[in-house]
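Sanity check

After download, print the first record. It should look like this:
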Amino acid sequence: MKVLILGSNGLVGTSVKHVLERNPNIEELICATRNDADLFNFGETKELIENSKPDIMINAAAKLVEFMQIL
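Expected structure tokens:
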């Protein structure tokens, strides 16, 4: 099975990556970060998914804002 993780360097993505790395059923683990595709750009996101052809895709990406922007 081929798995694509979006946001693989974040808190959730890193944890998911560590769990899946030990799973013998995962033949290929594709760990995408913001350097691989801008998820706000439809074309880049589509290209990433089409090129990797995952069986499963996990979206652990998040848009973070600075604390002061919330107030």
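If your output differs, re-run the checksum step. Summary of this record's structure: The two ends are 44 Å apart (CA to CA).
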